[in-house]
Amino acid sequence: MSNKFEITALVLAGGAAQRMGGVDKGWQLYAGQPLIERMMALVKPFSVQQFISANRNLERYQTLVDDVITDVAPWQGIGPLGGLYAVLDKLHTSHLLVVPCDTPRFSDAALQHLLENAQQAPEMVHFMETVSGPQPLHAVLPVAALKQNLPEFLAQAEYYGVMSFYKQIGRRAVHWHRDEELVNINYLDQLEP
After folding, report:
1. Residues 111-131: tens digit of each pLDDT
2. Helix orientation angle between 80-87 and 143-156, rounded to the nearest 10 degrees
3. How many CB atoms sit inside 10 A of residue 6's CB?
């Protein structure tokens, strides 16, 4: 593993999108562009490798990245931590950047702010926070601690909460002043910018 601060990006697109009627959220259009394409364009300049966590339409997602990560047994259907577990063997950088596919207003400036904070204390998980509260799926995780702690956490957890897992490693909130940039698109009528 490199000693440099290097980023692998994982864009989460593996959810069921129940509040959208079960459509594949990543391919829904926002301002004329699929949500997943917007987020891939955002993370690519900041990362040396990119993955998408998805559980359907895999061939379509494959057109955007070198590798699509699918949930693996026994951690299918447990939410974001299932995606993190599935990517563990693919990680060869010092840090993992995680973002969801459904925050198309998330900006370069916000992402840069998150990464700069993570570099200052690289042994901790850093996640975005706004006046609306924590945004744990916009985060930078130290890969060594992720690999060491996640399997054990999943094996012992009764609840697969992302923030509970971060607490085990050590976590730090990174405040961002533009709350609207971290609004999740959860309903079809939110797709109009």
Report:
1. 999 999 999 999 999 999 999
2. 130
3. 15
